[in-house]
Every structure is written in structure tokens, then in C-alpha cells.
Amino acid sequence: MLMNHASSTLLLTALLLATSCSSGEVPSDAFSTFGGFDDMGGDGDPDDALFAEPRIRLLLERQYVNAVGDLLGPAAAMAASPRADVTLNGFDAIGAAQLSLTDADIDAYERSAVAVAAAAVADPTKLSPYLSCTPLSPSDPDCMRSFVDAFGLMAWRRPLDAAELDRWSAVGVSAAADFGTFTRGVESVIAGMLQSPNFIYQVELGAASDDGAGQRKLSGYELATRMSFFLLDTTPSATLLEAAAAGELDDADGVRGWAEELLLDPRARLAFNSYFEELLHLRKLAEIAKDPGTYPSWSPELADSMKAETIALIDEIVWTENGDFRDILDAEYTFVDEALADHYELASPGPSGFQKVPVPPGEKRGGIFGHAGLLSVLAHVSSSSPTVRGKFIQERMLCFSIPPPPPGTVTDLPSTEDAKTMRERLALHQEDPLCASCHTIMDPPGLGLENYDGVGKYRTLDNGAPIDALSALDGAPFEGALELGQALREREQFSWCSVLNLYRHATGHVEASGEVERLREVDEAFIDAEYRLEAAIVELVSSRAFRYVGEQN
Amino acid sequence: MNNPKQYKPRKAPIIRSQGLSRRTMLRGVVGGATVALALPLLEIMLDQHGEALAGGGPLPRRMITWFFGNGCALNVTGDVNSGLRFWPSAEGPGYDVTPQLAPLANAGVIDYCSVLSKFEVKAAAENRRGHHDGCTLFSGYPFIEVDGANYSSKSGGPTIDQVAANEIGGQTYLPSVQLQISKRILTTEGPTLQYLSHKGPDQPLPQIADPQAAWNKLFASFTPDDDPTTPHRLAALDAVGEDTRALKQRVGSADRIRLDAHLDSVAQIRNQIAASAPECMQPVQPSETNTDIDGQEPLISVNEVMSDLLALAFACDLTRVASVQFTGSVASTVFSDLGQNMGHHDMTHEAAQNEAIDASTIYTMERLAYLLSALRDTPEGNGNLLDNSCVLVSSDCSSGLTHSTFDQPIIVAGGGGGALKYPGVHYRSPKRENTSDILLACLQSVCPGASEVGGTLGHSSSPLSAILA
């Protein structure tokens, strides 16, 4: 099982013992823990019953901005400034499904919505899609209600109920009357409705279904929302919402058809590029430091180019070629601009941006693990880090969780006086049984990349001593990025982990046991489709694991 | 029903003009420019002795938690049983000043500092993972593992600053403020390591790393009293509250707790928008933005500006609770000013780097000394802000090499409004007392009625009497 039972027990205990300045009182800002995948099912189908409970999920930062842009235009999107994402279990989407908002977050959403509304009403054409009437007076209540109805459907991705219509119409009418213009009323409505939990969260409640114990089926609107934010990083279009209302998302085939349709939208490429920037930690390239003495060529501009290289390769394989996704691991070509060509000591491609070129020869490169970006982000400030690189490969590429170091572990490394190369310095990890249980899993995949330094430049010496980069991935020998990629692509765990990563991002939770069985079917379809990622995405979206949620706790 | 907290009517920190003729000007330096700041509290509200408010209430008391990551240097290089160099050898008041504590002595604030050795972070024993467990010092709750994929953890309960903010935060414009100096923090293992302040497991509090943003938050975010849009912003927030309450009826139990937090914060922001601006003079906006210069962090200047802003915010009574994450847990901060070129976390895991680790601790104490001096140099009543503050300083382990949660470096600075011992002492725990005892003593300095802190193994109902006056 996924949930740590000890921690849920602990939580209860913590609640009971919680204190504040007034003794004995339980503070109200109390304590929830994550999803809680235990205590589910019990009766009924032992597999399907164990779906994760539905959670309200915050729009990610980029999704919020894109949604504002789709609703109200680019100027409004420019004015948007939502709360920053927080990562949990390796995914922003999981943090968005578990964490509560704080004062600072609510403040950010309030200010953002006010600024967005002001930008939106500055351009009347942005309001016209929601205005089907001409106000008879500045505070015409019927016309205001019709605006709330139309804007609400799009902003909240579902029709409003009567109470909601009343509530928000009143906000608009009051402001319109106060300022004497209908537009000021509309501005207040927009500013308010974009702060509502119905906008900032994906609300996924589902409804009891008659065809699966312990499961709830997402409504058409909920599923349209889940699909659109996953596939396009933005709010569902009017067309998709209409399809949802017409029942076109009620079964797997309908969903499959719409998933294929949405993937034709150019924004799908952008959405999955953002996903890979997150998955591969490429976003961090903008934040990390490198020691200027050790790596004088490092600059923020070079880091940008590095990120672009990896995204360009993935984009080419997944979207341009619609090829075998595993090629990202061992492609013997890449994309460089002038800065990167200089970094790799390749001939300059000229100033016109990125060009497709063969990987640098004689450096055992191929695929993303030969890319300077990944090699830089998986390294220390002034050295490489086989452990960090190996841990990433095991955790992120193969979904193997590395246990923590045992308590009391002394983490010393021998000095560079005693042991020259990183491999020699890490030898103790392999010898001491306390360390070896995990480091024999973590270090070797990284040790095979030791010919690439902390910024991904090729080298044959480490501290003046020759590098031995012959290593192994879980027993399979390899040396260098190309052979690592070739070994990885043959591992069944790689495609499986690719499916799991997509699912965690798409749904904001780590798969529960009933979902695992369904995701196995997705993986099989992925393999049958010769590892075309698009096929995996379509299968994932039409899978029961995507269309259904568990019971509420 | 799930949320018994009642919001107190908020007292806007406004001081009317009758005292202006005799107000004292407080000198503050922000971003290199000297500014004058009215200090209304003293002149108008103090009694004749300057020791209490004219109405009979005590002067405000403040709490700061101040964090630096990855522990300190060992006494003997490579000898994990040799203890920390950090500690004086003598106990009691007038303890000897080690090189690590010298910055505090040089700044003239060491009398305000009690140093507390040989304590055990009892909360750390329940779940073990290096750094995560040591961070539990600040809450007294064992951390919560969020296992399953890409290991993360959450704080097991509210950190001590948020326990205090929950009690006294309603008396000021902002219940608390969270500041961050180094930007090189770890964001991949969850909130425990990423954030210093937590209201609860699912509410890590975002930190402000840009001094201009801190200035905006503290001194420029007031809504003018005559802003015609204010009633409509409030009406929108009220409608948002209605939406939230309606949604709460339809979601599962965990989400109901999240939406309660949402409602609490909507109420808080509503109060902030409705609050009148204080008549404290606005300091000039700092020019510092915490932007790297040639790939290096401007740690010294950011720390100075943030410290100055915090002292001014306290003087204006905009908030009484703050947390400052100087460097993060498992952070890769590089102390470029010391000529270092390794990330701090990596460095602390190599015995051979003991001297460099030590230098980074001394550097860190220099930055802390700046904050304490800024508080000490801001008069309040017959004393100063430091007299009326409790500053809890610690890390996430004893030393990076051992990851031990026994004998983490701990300083409690400030007079605590008379609640804390002055001059401070070196107290060496004879029996590995619980660090939560220290939390409780700190908490009592701002919330005299507090009787317990923390949970399970970290729970304490016995304040450390050695530091109480």
C-alpha cells in the first residue's frame, strides 16, 4: 500500500496533543495529511475499489495564467500573478492536491484577480463573448445575471446553480450601482469569480456509479476540465464543455476521440514541454549556481540554451516524428545553438537559433543523459555527482524509491588528497554494508556518466587522475550516456515509470493499488503502439484510472 | 463546526495625530538610505515609566525563529564524537566567547544570548531521515513522511512561531511574516526542508526572498481608507467565502480541512484590506532585490535590508512574529564572500572541509548579529526591541557529517519582555533534555499562558527554567 499507516496514526495523536497558547485547545488550523489511500474499498472488487479519493486540486501557476488568457485575453494573462507551485512527491500537481492555501496565497489570488479584471474591462472586446444583452441601466440586474451565467460557465467550467447566480449577480449589481457603470459591475464580478475556489481549484467530486464498487465517475464537466488542464495546460474550450454537456465524454471511446482531438492543438506541445521541464528538473537550470572558478563558461544564458536543447529533442521525437519515446534516451543527434555548440566544442550552427546536429563525436553521448542541461542540474556547484545522477535515474526514470540513509550514518567522503577521482571517493559507498544497500543501486548509473563534468563537458581526467566510466545499470554494463540510454530503453520499468509519471502529474496523486491495474493496461497499449507517447497519453486519458475517482473519505 | 477559531476584531495599528508634536524619530537604514520613522507606540501609548502601555497592558512581545542549514563544524576534524566547536566551555552567565560566538560579542549583543548545548530533538526520533528530523526542532512534532514516490515530508504540526501567531497575530496588521535570505534552497523533498514556518502539515508558509517584495508586503500593501473599490473587494471576498462554504459541504474530510484554512485566510485578507494604514512613516523602498551578481548571492546586503525592515515592522507594530530562513536545509548556498566554491550542504558532508564549515558558521553568526543589533538599536520604552523579543536560532542537525539531532546548535536571544534571563547563560543539559522545553520557554515569553508545545515524542509541558528570568 502507498500510505504509511504509522503516519496517519501519528497524525491523530498529534491532533490530540496539539496545543496553542491557550492550553489544551486544539488549534483550528489543524492538520490534514495527504490523500489517505487506506481504509478504502474493503468490500467489492479488491482491485478497482482501491482508487484514490478525489481531492480538490489547485490550478498550477501556468494553468491559472493560461486559463485567464483564454477567458479574458493576453493583457489579462499578463496581469495574472497566482501563488507559486509547491512540489510534493516530485510533482507540483501533487502539492496542488494536498496543500492548503495560506494568507499569502489568498492575498496573491485576490490581488491577481483584481488586476486581471481591470485589464480585462479595459478592452471591451474581451467581454463580448459573455455579454449577450445591452444593459438597460448601469445596474441592469437581468443583464448582469446573464453575464454571470455566461462568464461563470467558462470560468468555473460548469453551469452555475441559482444560489451562485444570485450571489455573484448581487456583487455585480452593487458595484455597478455604486460607480454608475455596468462595466464596473462586470469588473467586480470577474475579480470575485476568479478568486472563487470554483475557479482556482479543479473540483472533482464524481458521482456514485452503478458499475464499480467504491468508485465515483467524474461528470462530463469534471472530465473535460481534467482533460483540458492535463493535455493543454488550460481551461476547457466552449466546444469541449458543450461536448461534455452532450454526453460525449461519458464513455471511454468518446474520451479517446476527444483526447486525440485536443492533442492536435499546438498548445499540447507546450503543455508537455512544461511537463518535461518539471519532470527532468530543467526548470532548475535557471536557479542553480555553478562555481565560476571551476566552470567559467556557465551563465544564465547558457543554462537557458541547455534547457532548450533537451526540450527540442523531446519535442522532435514525440511531436514532430511521433516516434518511439525511448529514443529520447539514445538519440544520436541533438539540437544546439551557438552557445551550446561552443560548450560542446562543435562547429557553430550560426546565429539563427537551434540546429539539428549529430551528437559530439567520440564522447559516448546520445540521448538526454548526454545533454549538458540534465548533467548540470544533476551535479554539485563545483563537481559532478554520480550519486545525485544515479538517484535521479532510479527514482525519476525507473520509479524506484531509494530508502533514506540509516540513522547515525556518517556521510564523510575521503578528501581529494586520499582519493583522486569521484569514483575512488565513492568506493566506500560500495564497501560499507550500511551504505552499500542503497548506494549500489544509486551510484553505478551515475558513475557511468563520470566523463561528463558538473556542466556536462566531456573530460577524461578527474583531479588529474584518469576516469574509469565503465559501470552498470542494475547489473547491465555500460559506459557513457549512449550506452546508459540503450540499457534504459530495454528496461520494462522505463515505459511503466513513464506512464506513472504522467499519471501522477495528470491526477495529482501517487497511484493507488486499484489504479495500478488499470495503468498496466495503459503501459501495454504504450508498448503495442511502439512506444509512441501520444498513444500512451490517449490511453491514459481514456483509462478508468483517469475517468473515475475513489470514494470520498 | 470543524473550525472553532474565532477571529478577533482586528485593531488596525493606527495612531492618531495627538502625539505627533512630541513623537520620537527613529533612525532606520534601509538599502543604504537613512530614513526617519515615527515610533508612535512610545510617545502616545506608554505609561510614565516607559515600561508598559498607558492602559496598563504590557509592551508588545515578539518572536523570531531564525534558521541556518546543515549544522556546524566539529571540535576535532573528522571525529564525530568530539562535539561542536560552537560551544563555550564554561556554563552560566559570562560564558567564554568561542570564535563562532564572537560576532555576537563584537556586536555587543551576546549578553542577550543564551546558548543551549546537549539537548535532544525528541520529536526527531519518531521518523528518521537526515535533516528532515532535525527540522522538527522548530515545531516539536515528528515530521510526516509522504512516501510512495520521490520521497517528501511535511511538518507534523505548527512551528512555534505559528503557535504564537495563532495567539497574538490577530493584534497586528499581519499575523506573521516569513523571510528568506539565501535562494539556494532544496525544493524536491517537500515542505519540511523547503520552509521554516508551518501552520500545520498542509500549510507551509511561503517565504519572501526579495527585499522589495518584503517592503511591499510590510509597508506598501495598505489599502487607502478612501479607496472607492474597497467595499466591492470586500463584497467579492464575502461571496468567495459563501462559495467556499458551499463547496465544503460537498468534499471529503481532508478537503474540508483545506477549505477551512481557505476560509481563515479569506477572513484574514478581508481584515487586512479593511484595516487603516498605520501612521508610521514609510521607509524608502530598498533597491536590493536579491538578484545574483555574477552568479553569487548578495547575502550580506539582503540580510541587512531584511533585518532593518523587520526591526521597522516591529517598531510600527505591523507584526509581532517573524521567521527568517537564512540558509536552507540541504541548501547549496555558496559563501562566496569567504572565497568558498562548494555548496554548503555538500561541504558539510566532508570531514576535510571542517575549517570551511567553521568559517561558514562564523559568517552566519555575523549575519545573525546584524539582526540582533538592528533590534537592539531600535528603542522602545525604556529599552529596545531586543528587550521585548525572543529570537530562537537553530539548524537541522548538529553537524552535517553526523546528521545527529542531539546537540544541535541553539541560541535563544532577547529579553522576552523580561521573561527571559538577562544576561544570557550557557546551559549544558545534563540529561539530554527535550528541545521542546526551549520552545515552550520561548513561547511563554510571548504567550505567558502557554502550557505545552509539540506532539508525541516531541511534546513538552516543562519550559526550560534555565533561560527563564
TrEMBL record, chain A:
Residues 474-546 form the DUF1585 domain. Residues 57-121 form the DUF1587 domain. This is Cellulose-binding domain protein. Residues 218-346 form the DUF1592 domain. Keywords: Signal. Residues 1-23 form the signal peptide. Coiled coil: none annotated. InterPro entries: DUF1585 (IPR011478), DUF1587 (IPR013036), DUF1588 (IPR013039), DUF1592 (IPR013042), DUF1595 (IPR013043). It holds the Pfam family PSD5. Residues 143-204 form the DUF1595 domain. It comes from Enhygromyxa salina. It comes from the Bacteria. The keyword Magnesium does not apply. Residues 365-460 form the DUF1588 domain.
From TrEMBL, chain B:
This is Tat (Twin-arginine translocation) pathway signal sequence domain protein. InterPro entries: DUF1552, TAT_signal. PROSITE patterns: TAT.
